[in-house]
């Protein structure tokens, strides 16, 4: 970064540092730090932390499901592409005429082991 940009950043941080110094001095001079009650703190922060953790779990599960769907879609595509290619190679005499039987093309076994018959 150029020196001018660094100088602008430092000037922008200066009021924040001054404000934080003032707040810390008010906190300690008013003895607010001596009035800390851990039970009240736990009552306030525990639900907040728990809800943030729950949101994190939901995001993780949704990302995992999207990744699983994408991987399954890729597996389906590769399986059926190879299967159609095998059908085309098996019917070499039909291949020369350029026509395939629709019944042969639709007679795919599903990925889950169920076969579709016409």
Give a quick summary of the entry.
The chain has helices spanning 3-29, 38-90, 92-97, 102-106. The protein is an all-alpha fold and 118 residues long. Mean pLDDT is 77; it is low at 114-118.
Describe the 3D structure:
The chain has 118 residues and is mainly alpha-helical. The chain has 2 domains: 36 residues; 69 residues. The protein is 77% helix and 0% strand. The protein contains 4 helices and no strands.
Draw up the topology in text.
Blueprint: H1 3-29, H2 38-90, H3 92-97, H4 102-106
Name some characteristics of this structure.
2 domains, mainly alpha, disordered C terminus, 77% helix, single chain, 4 helices, 118 residues, elongated
Distance between the termini: 69 Å
Q: What is the count of distinct domains? A: 2
Low-confidence stretches: 114-118
Q: Average pLDDT value?
A: 77
H/E order of the elements?
Answer: HHHH
Based on DSSP secondary structure assignment, what is the total number of beta strands? 0
Total DSSP helices: 4
Radius of gyration: 33 Å
- Structural class designation: mainly alpha
Largest sheet: none
The helicity comes to over 70%
Please give the oligomerization state of what you see. single chain
Q: How would you describe the shape?
A: elongated
Percent of residues in beta strands?
Answer: under 5%
